[in-house]
Amino acid sequence: MATLTEAPPPLSPTTPTRKSPRKRGRLTPYWLLLPGLLWLVVFFALPMIYQASTSVQTGSLEEGYKVTWHFATYWDALSAYWPQFLRSVLYAGAATVLCLALGYPLAYLIAFRAGRWRNLIMILVIAPFFTSFLIRTLAWKTILADGGPVVGALNTLHVLDVTSWLGWTAGDRVLATPLAVVCGLTYNFLPFMILPLYSSLERIDGRLHEAAGDLYARPATVFRKVTFPLSMPGVVSGTLLTFIPASGDYVNAELLGSTDTRMIGNVIQTQFLRVLDYPTAAALSFILMAAILFMVTFYIRRSGTEDLV
Amino acid sequence: MRLVNWLKRHFVVIAGLLTLGYLLLPNVVVTVFSFNKPKGRFNYEWQQFSTDAWQDPCGVAGLCGSLSLSLQIAVWATLGATLLGTMIAFALVRYRFRARGAVNSLIFLPMAMPEVVMAASLLTLFLNLGAQLGFWTILIAHIMFCLSFVVTAVKARVMSMDPRLEQAAQDLYAGPAQTFLRVTLPIAAPGIAAGALLAFALSFDDFIITNFNAGSTVTFPMFVWGSAQRGTPVQINVIGTAMFLVAVLLVLTSMVVGNRRNKQKA
Questions:
Q1: Is A283 at the interface with chain B, CB within 8 A?
Q2: pLDDT on residue A2
Q3: N or C terminus: which one in chain A shows less Cβ crowding within 10 Å?
């Protein structure tokens, strides 16, 4: 055996062999950061620059595109597709509000009332993540089908008359209407609301509720004055995590909507992958990005949780 | 009046369970319709009970191929993103260095960007470089968007770690490598695992970014998307149901194992 003749390994691995440990220690974070940051710079930041330059190009697919600083593309894109922009903001906003309204009770239930059921409910919230969201979105086609029980019940209760009058549905159908798209968006992004809400609710000291109760606050007052303000970080990150992806989504509008419910994501996708009008598509996605960054910054300032990010 | 009072008292429980029902309703529908025998090309209407699809889940051309491709991409993307993300997370929590704020913003931005924007800009890069769209471009994209989520998950765990544990290890003459492998890594492991799990789920399920950067390569979500236009085979529901069950089982086992460990420690 060769190992027998080998020299014994050094006894202590701590023996300092480096020449200048301090200098090396100072460089360690940069070595740790380098590969990951390089990845993000090359495949996230650099593409943004490429896209910016694409958005000011003119030309055609056959002859090739050249940068001509043609900023009019932005104006043309905005004037042609402002309804889709508006719709994206409205649908994503409605879905976010619905997610908050639906998600808050469930997050509250898991945090304070679930007891030994807590883990099971958590699993049921997370597990759908692992089933393809496209399959689940397609299932909404079955649920909201024209002759299905949901539409039947809504018709009997004359709910659809009201929603049709509001323009949310059309006649006695739900599929291919704004209501279906908002319903799908709400469903798809609900877990992104529930999880941050839960984690901020969970951190609240239950004794604060007791103290408020001892001071004769009614349950509604306790919620308004104690629980809700303390859960604000969760509300802010939850609304951001639902609003941002929802405003760029094109899957729900495509599968559950119609040509009248197209959102800006649908336009970008069509322009990029089917029409192959790269400058317009690039300009549209830049406008979307700028609008979202602007809204998010404003929102974070207003809600006073700058240290969140 | 009694009913109103009862509803008032249990409002949170009722509303919460209704939301849970809303979340799970599609999964129930997917499961039920995996036992359907549809008449036409589409599986949206209930016709007849049948276990055909369960007996032959790969019976549709291209379905299982796309599934295995998605699994491969998800595994590699998880490994890549977890490795790179963990390194970044350690650097951010453990070291003070210049440009820390800039690094933090660069990590945050991909999460605050709608997927279409990232997808479209990455495609412009690939088109400009003349890259062949396919497996590698998908993998590159997936590592890119999973990275930030891994960093966030690992950072949260490492931040709550007591640095004195490492000092104690060093006082007991553990070398840097030993300290890292025997003390730091085991404590950070749950955070790394959470990040990896998230990366796997995000990569496996991603449609928007993949759709832009896949060329003619078909991953499982893309297969489902295509089938929504061409006709959905029942087998898709079978796969969806199986994935849900596997996820629930995995989480349940990990919790049972975790509980046992905690008991052993106590």
A1: no
A2: 39
A3: N
- Give the tens place of pLDDT for each residue, A187-228: 999 999 999 999 999 989 888 888 888 898 888 888 998 899
B20 part of contact set with chain A, CB < 8 Å: yes
**Looking at chain B, how many residues does it have?**
266
Note whether A35 contacts B: Cβ–Cβ < 8 A: yes
Q: Nearest CA to CA, how far is B201 from chain A (Å)?
A: 6
Q: Which residue has the tokens 């020449």?
A: A19
Token pair 């790394």 is at which residue?
A: B192
| A297–chain B Cβ distance below 8 A for any pair | no
Report CB contact under 8 Å: B121, A51: yes
Question: In 3-state terms, what secondary structure has residue A64?
Answer: strand
AA letter at A271 = Q
Alpha carbon of A42: minimum distance to chain B alpha carbons (Å) = 9
Residue-wise DSSP of B36-57: B--SSS---S---B--HHHH-T
Q: Per-residue pLDDT tens for B220-254?
A: 999 999 998 888 889 999 999 999 999 888 888 87
Q: Which of B124, B125, B160, B212 to mutate to test the interface with A (most CBs of A within 10 A)?
A: B124
What tens digit of pLDDT does each residue of A73-114 get? 899 999 999 999 999 999 999 999 999 999 999 999 999 988
Residue B46 CA to residue A286 CA, distance in Å, equals 44
B79 and A259 Cβ atoms separated by less than 8 Å:
no
Q: Do B240 and A255 touch (CB under 8 A)?
A: no
Gap between the Cα atoms of B217 and B66, Å rounded: 9
User: Looking at the complex, does the CB of residue A133 fall below 8 Å from at least one CB of chain B?
Assistant: yes
| Residue B181, both tokens | 């492998």
Backbone angles phi, psi at B78, to 5 degrees: -65, -45
At A60, give phi and psi (nearest 5°): -140, 165
